[in-house]
Structures are given as structure tokens and as C-alpha cells.
Amino acid sequence: MAGGAREVLTLQLGHFAGFVGAHWWNQQDAALHKPTDAQEQPEELCPDVLFRTGQTLHGQETYTPRLILMDLKGSLSSLKQESGLYRDKQLDAAIAWQGKLTTHKEELYPKNPYLQDLLSVEGVLSSDGIWRVKSIPNGKGPTTLTTAITPEPLIPTKGSISVWSDFLRVHLHPRSICMIQKYNHDGDAGRLEAFGQGESVLKEPRYLEELEDRLHFYVEECDYLQGFQILCDLHDGFSGVGAKASELLQDEYSGRGIITWGLLPGPYSLGQDPQKNIYRLLNTAFGLVHLSAHSSLVCPLSLGGSLGLRPEPPVNFSHLRYDATLPFHCSAILATALDTVTVPYRLHSSPVSMVHLANMLNFSGKKVVTAGATIPFPLGPSQSLPDTLMQLGGATPWTSLSACGDPSGTCCFAQSVVLRGLDKACHTSQLIPGTPLPSLLHACTTGEEVLAQYLQQQQPSVRSSSHLLLTPCKVVPPYPSLFSSSLSQQGLVLDDPPTGAAVESIPVLGALCSSSSLNRTLGDLVKELTKLDLRRWASFMDAGVEQDDLEELLQELRNLAQCYQCGDSLMD
What we know:
The protein is of the alpha/beta class. It is about 30% helix and about 15% strand. The protein is built from 13 helices and 17 strands. A six-stranded parallel β-sheet has the order 7-4-1-8-9-10, sandwiched between helices. A hairpin with a 5-residue loop joins strand 2 and strand 3. It is globular, with a radius of gyration of 24 Å. The model is unreliable at about 90-95, about 120-140, about 140-145, about 145-150 and about 570 (pLDDT under 50).
């Protein structure tokens, strides 16, 4: 690894995790490709934290995510499990048998039109019989292989995306994809529905050994591994897969950070199927408790208004128009938040390690945190950062993304805040000398001071860490077109009529908070689970969970909820 990067290995567990991950990796890759006419900006984020260099069989350099993902049979569509990047067509074509051959050709899934341009990067079989892969510049120096670039990328339309591989534009290493063949992605039978089923997957030697082999491959090539980030579905049986995976990581890699993002799709269709809704509740509860036992930090991520059985409307953003029934939309928003709140441990200079970030937020047993974001941060072209923060007033400046309901009236114990994508010229007040200052924020001399002062005013007794970056969040296709017409190409709120240009990047404010809202949220989970007549849901228990496990779960949830009572703060 070049430059002494503090590497992170990512695990994606589940299909919705695949959706979030696909957007996440697309955004990382878009940040690597800088327009030739763009102003030179300092490289604030270190891509080597998440990506690894390698070579094809013919010596060409590659740059791929340091990633292990697990999904179910039938979930890949046209994506090949071994990927196309390291293929050797000569070896594919080599057949030793000289007798008669009968060829049985499986019907291929058609490649999504938004990925057709990737065919040109996977190479050609040249006249000398060698599979040659084309080189793609990624802005990092030597030509490496990541994705294809199209002059005018297509924008996916509603309903055109069915699986996450339909819009993943990044090539994966052959050791990235691990398929669970015993369960089906589609259909009513053979589904991975329950926490106990997920736990049992990684109790089978076949899958456990496969995961361990891939972990060792990636970990052993790291020089300064700081830890693991797990993107894990909470609503289905992958919550059990995540629980066993985090336990394995804790046992084998003691001292490394393990930050788990528990993912829940939008509140679409879950309320229509009582069994699916009950399973979602049980899987989420078991997942949160077991993941928090083995992770440094756990953060649920969802656009839903609640973790409970009662349907709540999805969250709103002033300048986003999204469809909560589409995983493609919901996952894009969550990936944008994730790309922002993970900034501290991906910085080029003075990074905050995963362990340090977790320790700052998880004191006194508070291993579960909430996430929030303002997407995009509502800065006008003629405004300064102090002006915009004053307009936000005394309310919480971000929208909750952890399904914990209205944050008003709750208190925060510790928080990590990132604001990115603002031009340096607007970091401080631009008032004419002698003009009365509207606030103390307008007296600050740096943007970092403005943000820190604002957070201090909002939560005087809270331990806060803040970062201010020039680098925006990239939202180029196949990122969905979610933005209102009142935004500029750089995601700023327009004073004049809209230009019609598509939004390509946005400023984002993101936060991780240890919040008392979790006291209410976890407490409500306990109440709902206590009311359940489990005799009606015997199939969940048949998957390997016993009544004693449920009683222990309820007690663990009660203990976890008590950690977040408002009287428990750093200042007490």
C-alpha cells in the first residue's frame, strides 16, 4: 500500500447492503475521476483506505475495492461472480479433450444499458490470443483499472433497476463476491428470512472457511489495517450473518475497529405483510443486540420514521424528491450520508482512526449511535456559512437517518460532525468592515472555527468532533436524479431561475450522535416484542432461536436503552 494508508476492509452482507454499497463505490470511483478543466484541489480523502492495487494475469495494474460481499443465489443478474477484470480468455478457451463435445450454454442475463460501456473496458481477445484489458486513467498517477467512462452517462429511469449489480460501475476483485447458494434471492421458497438462519450460515464449514479465506487474503496484504466496516441488512436473515461475522472479526482481529452500519430499506411494502413485518422487528432487535456485543460501534441507517410495527412516513429533505418504495432511491441517499460520516477515518492528513472515533462516541456502554444528514446542505450562492447556520436556527440541523423519530426534546452525549463541499471563500462572513455582526459566528476567522462554535452553541455540554472539507459529494449518473430544480450544478440553492443543468456534486452535512432518542427507540422495541405471541410465529423460532434467547434479548435491550437516559452525560 502506497503512502502508509490506514486500510479498511469492507464487508457487505445482504441485498439492500448491496444497493447502498453499489452507490457508495460508484461515488468513491467518481471522486477518482477529475475533469481535466477542474481547478486543482487538495486531496483531502485517501482512496487507498478503501481501495487496493493489484495486477491482472498479464501485468496490467488494477485498483479495486477492498471488499467482501455476500448475497443470495440469483442476485447478481449479469454480473459474474469471479468478475471480468482478471479473466484470462486463453484459459477459458483451453480444452484438453479431443473427442466430441456437447455444449450446454446457459442463457445469459442481459447487461443493463447503464453498464454497456463497461464492455469496452473489460478488453478484447487480441490476435495473439491474449486477453488484453484496457487501461483507464483514475487521476491517481499511473493508469489503472477501475471503471469505464462515458461522455454522456445514461440516467436510470424508475423501475429500470431491479438488483444492485444493475448499476455498479466499479470492477470487483475475484475474491470479493461470496454467494450463499442454499437460499434464493427471488421467489417465495428458500428465503433467508430469520436471524437464526443467518447465524447458521456461518456455522457451516463451507461458508465459514470461504469467508475466513477471503479475510486472510485481504488482511495479509495490508500494512496498517485500522479495521473493518460492515454494511449489513438488519431486516432479514442477514442480521444473523452479520452477528456471526462481527463475532469472527472480534475473535480473530482483536484491537481493530469494527464499525457496523445496520441497513433497513424504506418503509415500503413491509406493513403489507404481517409476517414480514414481525420478522423485520425480531431480526432488527436480535441484530442490534448481537452486533453491538461484537462491534466497536453500531449505527442503524434507514429513511423510515420508526423501527417499530406501526408504519411511519419516510423522512423528508427540502431539496430531494425521492420515491421511498424504490431501494435504488433510498440506498443512494443513505450512501451519500455514509460517504460523509465516514470521512474522519479516511482523511489523508490527521485521520481519526476507527477505534478512536468509536471510543469518542461509545463511552459508558453506548455502542449504538444515530446518524443524521442534511442533503444537500442549503447554502445559497451569495451566502456564507455563518449566514446559513443562523438560518437553521436552534433546531437540529440534520434529518435523522436512524428511524428514531423526531429528535426534538432529546439530548446528545457525544457527536462527530462533518461538513463537506463548501468553497473556502464562503467559510467565513463576507460583511463589509464596520457592519454590525449578526452573530458570534460572523466573528470567526476560519470555517473550522465557525462550525465548532455553532456546535458549541447548539449543545454546550456535548463532546463534539468536527471536520470541514472542500471536497463535495459526487452525484453523477447512475446516481438517481433526485434533486429539485432550484439547485445549481454544484448543489447550491439558486437565487435566479434554474439553469437546467444536472446536479453533479453537492455539499453535505453529516453527523454521528450518541443520543437519548435511542432510549425511547430501544424501549419501544422492548414493549412491542413483549406483546408478541410467539406461538403465532413458530417458524422464526424453528430457525434456531429459542424462547430463552428471546428473554435474554429483551433484557439486553432494556440494559442498552438505560444507557441512553438523559441524565447520563459527560458533564454529570
